[in-house]
Structures are given as C-alpha cells and as structure tokens.
Amino acid sequence: MNVHKMFHVKHWSGGTAMAALALAALAACSSPEEIAAKTGTAAPPVPAAPPAPAPDKVAFEDNAKNGEATRDFAYAWPAEVSAIPELAARLTADRDKLLAEQKADWEESLREFAGSDCVGCVNRDYAMQWDVVANLPRFLSLSGAWNAYTGGAHGNYAWQALVWDRETKTAFDPKTMFTSPAALQGALGDAWCKALKGARAKKGMTPEDEDGIFPCPPIADLTVLVGSSDRKSFNRIGLIAAPYVAGSYAEGEYEVTLPVTAKVLAAVKPEYKAAFASPK
To answer: Pairing mode, if any, of strands 223-227 and 170-172?
Structure first.
C-alpha cells in the first residue's frame, strides 16, 4: 500500500519549522491582544456582553369571587422602584401585608353575612399605585395613591409619600426632611391656606368655611411631596388634602404646588439642604 496516496504530508523547511514553533510558544503564554501587538496581526473582536435586562414596572393583582361576593386587590410601582432592590423589597412586604389583611377581612365578612343579600357587605377592593414625583441623583421621591372599599355607601381614597435615599438606603416620609412640624407650618401654612381658598372657589365652594367644619387644615394633616422640575434638586412642594381633610367627600381632594422659598429652605434639616434648590 502506498502510504503517500492516503496521507498528504507537507515537508517543512528548517526556517519555516522554527517560525511555527516560535508562534506556538507565543500563543501558549500570551493573550490575543499581546499576540496581535507582537505579530502585527489584528486580534479577533471580543463579543460585547449582552446588556442587562432593564427593570420593569410591577402591576400585581390578586382577585377572588365567591358567589356574588368579590375581592379585588391591585398594587403597582414604576420601573424606577424595580431598579432599587431594597425599595422593591420594602414595597413587596407592604403589599403582602395589605393583601393578607384584606383576605382575612373578606373571609370574616363571608362568615358574618352568610345568607344575607347585602352584596356590599361582602365586597372588598383595594388598589395602590406608586408614581415618581422626582428622580434625583441621590433621592427618588414617590407618591402613592390608594383607594379602598370595605363595605358601606362608598369607598375612600388618599395619598402617601415616600422618599428613598440611595446613599443611606433608607425610606422616609418627606415631612421628616424638615426640622419640625411647626417649622414646616411656618414655611408653608400661609401660602397653603391662600391657595386653598382659590381652589375652593374654582369648585364653586365658599372660600372660607364659615361653619368651621372644614377650616384650613395644618400642613401636618396633608400629604407632602417633594418635587423637581429640573431633575437636579427639589424646587417645589406638593400638598394634597384627601377627602374629609379640607372639605367634604363630594368636594374631592385639593392639590396645591408651591415653590421652594427662602422660608422653606430655612426649615429643611441641614443634612438635606444640599438637595433643595436655593431660591433666586
């Protein structure tokens, strides 16, 4: 059998063999970039790592039905919250607690009103929607609008406020960014009551509550939001009075936005002053 017909053997010259051995030794102890630099050849491109999936908003629902009795639960937050694992975990814990409470209340109502034709007595509904008020380099300011029905003529609704500090990894009510409730009242009280009069007039209500049932409420009774128009610093304050706080349920809520003034800045705690805009 002629071996040369089965295998094609290439004979190397002495110089070529030495060059091949040198390249093999170089490849054994060098990175592709080093080989490219020493041999003058281009290194193969390194494939880019796939981008991390962008955080997504969360819209959780848990509903149930028992005959004509219904239980609806919804809890949502934006992608900016999902991007902060500690904050998402905090809201998840809040959601789970509220859901467990609603389930227990619904089960109790089913037992209490078994055989009754009072459908409203056994219906439960809760919804919470968190939204971004301001997203600054250090702080994420959120508003939480919720509504709930636990039986009766109608449900109720109101707001919550929360600020997340990325440096300390803590969440707190924006009111705690100010030195005291009295200081906050002194900084915003007059402007709030003046704006409330105008808002009442726009709704066709008497600007002054003459019977004294709903006088201008203090700032401590409102939801306080810290906002920004430039994503650099807090330069405005949002104030929300839920139903029954500044007026009847039929009047609905009252919302007012006020600028950060020198009086407001003076009421801010020293550790937070850098986050607020200096009045011009």
So the answer is: unpaired
